[in-house]
Design goal:
With 620 residues, the chain is mainly β. It has four helices and 35 strands. It is globular.
Length: 620
Amino acid sequence: MYVRNADGSLAYDKNSGNKIYDYGDGSSTNSTRNFMSMSNPKGDLLYNKEEYLMDILNGKWFIELSPIEGLKLTGSLGAYIDNTRYNVLGNKYYGQSASYGGTAQQEHIRTSAFNQQYLATYKKSFGMNNFDVLLGYESYDYRYEYSYATGQNLYKDYDFTVNNTIDNKRGGGARDEYSTRGIISRINYDFDEKYFASASYRRDASSRFHPDKRWGNFWSASVAWVISKEAFLENTEWIDMLKLKASFGQQGNDALLRNGYANYYPYLDQYSMTGANGIFSDGTLYYKGNPDITWEKSNSFNIGTDFTLLNHKLEGTIEYFNRKTSDMLYNKPVANSNGYSSIPMNIGSMTNSGVEIELNYTPIDINNLKWNIFGNATFLKNKVNKLHPDLNGELISGSRIYREGESMYQLYLVKYAGVDPTTGQSLFWAKDDEGNAYTTADYAVASNCKEATGDLLPTVYGGFGTSLDFYGFDFSIQFSYQLGGKLWDYTYQDLMHGGSNSNAGYNWHKDIAKAWTAENPNTDVPRLCATENYDAGSSSDRWIVSSNYLSINNITLGYTLPKRIVRNLGIESLRVYGAADNVALFAARKGLDPRQGYVSSTTSTYGALRSISAGVKLTF
């Protein structure tokens, strides 16, 4: 962390009087290091400066009129404005900015959004027939503006303004705009609150598409029957409420990313501006647009039942769902010889289907004692129905593979074959020209014989818990779970490296102690050799692990004082409580968090933070 003198005392910079931190660069100290060279987290926090200054306005205005009975006219306006200034200073004495004499950067980011919605609702009843009609219009306008300036070689030590620099001053800016428009209609009907029907239609436009492809049409319909109100069930004491329901609805999606960021003009070819001295050069194409892309459409069908039984002790929902997405928006990879590596397209369709179950049971509810148990489960299946005809039923993109008739949640990897007990080298599966499988220690050969992992989706996921109220005390605990799936554990792969120079300073997982040696030939962890090409750490299905988990999401304990006591103090109610969130996670491997995704998990992103809190709730 620090540079020290020969007697062990801290060394101080003679010019600035600051402590000298060890940056491992051969300058702040005589030694160098491969890991985090030119960096020292504590020194950077102390001597580098970074700040965000934000002015935010978030407002909403609303008006409601009722000119005649049953008719309600509403209008709402929403505005959001965010002016952010971002200032960065890299100090001129230590670390990565020292060789430039320090660096300064100033950015200004203005984000604004304006939303309008105008609705007309009319309700009317004729006997036991009830109608509810809605018509409306809405719009959304978004604008993003960005400008920046940077410079090097600071005059004043800790002044981040670019005018405080004298070298390599440069700047730039960009702007994005995005708009949507929507026309809304809906009609609801019910007869005696026993039979229900609803239908809706909306027409939406997005500026992300060519004007000829901008508008999309979406509709929905639903029906429900409260069967428990029928005469043939009126005397069934154990049924309190029983409803059958079914619905179909469409929804549009216009989002398409570019290098992980939103692309607001995917229908246009996009170029980098170049040139000098008043002369424009031919712009470099950095994104190939497609004027034929249009809305991605999701069709959702649901059928199920809601019920309350046993004198309101048991209530729940059981529902089958089928969600088919068609005209999926995707950046289709193409040969680089085209001058670009991908093109946006509506490439096919995909279906997610399954069953959702939600139950809530109250076994005890007497006087001052109430006990409740709840749980839910989702069984999900995914299938790629159709890809673009150019793909011939299969799309391979890096370590992902998409095939018609199969799940999209699978990987395309080299198959790991274990460890050669004689040499300790890792082995992989490959195939000869006749298609016969054999093992090889040559990862490059095996890379030509990758295979799909099969569906990695969990069979079921959901949550459960219980709550108890007893003479003013209340206790609850909530869990979530997942069973039957697998995923790629990136972090474990990184921690099982071979110890080469490029990995110097990186931790090992404790499983590295199981590595092959002449005395330990029967193991699934290859030998360690820092001087050879360590193919054992390369991507393969060796890193696929169970994604099963059980997590304790929340534990709460509280006590509410009796009303006869608190009312004498002029208080309606008083509750003292303590709570713990994200208490524990139990997974196939310590440190693995399967909640990060269905396909992979990594510790390069923050997980859910554990928190413990206590408080007092007063109601007057």
